[in-house]
Design goal:
The complex is a heterodimer.
Chain A: H1 2-26, H2 30-37, H3 39-56, H4 60-89, H5 102-111
Helix pairs in contact in A: 1-2, 1-3, 3-4
Chain B: H1 2-23, H2 28-49, H3 53-78, H4 82-105
The chains are: A mainly alpha, B mainly alpha.
């Protein structure tokens, strides 16, 4: 029974990985791509690792899978935030359909 | 012209999924690893043609996350836990690499 639940988690994670990568190919500019690709992390690979943990229980493989979830959840949002901030500061243009850009407004307000 | 590209992509993806899931006689984990490698092809497409440097950094980051998921499945298939050690180290190293790339993209150097 717990084996079937683990496999369901793994298939769910692979579906999230696939749609995140599809968003990485399809979306128009780097910020949208980053927003779609970060979905790969929080449900994709973490779902796969949690499924592996459920399938193997508290063996050394299961503990390493749990440790992998902790590492990914701690490190990946920090990296995504740093990349998007650096991209905006190095003047990579937004897409044409952009309506509002609050970060640019704040920077202009600060310069005044 | 747009819907022709849509149709070609949809036919390629659906043909791959049907061939992978119903015509290969392998274990379930190996089929799922095939799907992750197919996703990695899309990510490599974004690494090669990405118009700005930030796109390439995002794609390399997501490639590391996909590799962590793939190594988890592989160690679950072989019942060997040392393959997951490679995944843990890969997650930490790709985090540090993303931060360093973001800092260089912003125009600063590593010892600021």
């Amino acid at each position: 029974m717990i084996d079937v639940i683990g496999k369901i988690f793994i298939i769910f994670g692979i579906a999230f990985d696939f749609f995140g990568v599809l968003g990485l190919v399809r979306l128009p500019d780097v910020y949208n791509r980053l927003q779609a690709a970060t979905k790969c992390v929080t449900f994709g690979s973490a779902g796969i690792l949690f499924g592996v943990f459920l399938m193997h229980g508290f063996t050394n493989l299961g503990f390493k899978a749990l440790l992998g979830i902790v590492f990914i959840f701690l490190t990946s949002p920090v990296a995504a935030h740093a990349i998007s901030r650096a991209a905006h500061r190095s003047n990579i243009p937004l897409t044409d359909k952009t309506i509002v850009d609050h970060y640019q407004d704040d920077k202009e307000l600060k310069e005044e | 012209m747009k819907w022709v590209r849509w149709l070609i992509g949809l036919v390629v993806i659906v043909a791959f999924l049907i061939w992978d899931l119903f015509f290969l006689e392998l274990a379930l984990e190996v089929k799922l690893i095939n799907i992750i490698l197919f996703c990695a092809l899309f990510v490599l497409f974004r690494v090669i043609v990405g118009p700005s440097p930030a796109d390439r950094i995002v794609a390399v980051d997501i490639l590391g996350i996909l590799i962590v998921g793939m190594l988890a499945l592989l160690s679950s298939y072989y019942e060997k836990s040392y393959l997951l050690d490679v995944g843990l180290i890969w997650a930490l190293m790709s985090f540090i690499a993303s931060l360093a790339f973001a800092k260089i993209l912003e125009g600063r150097f590593l010892d600021d």
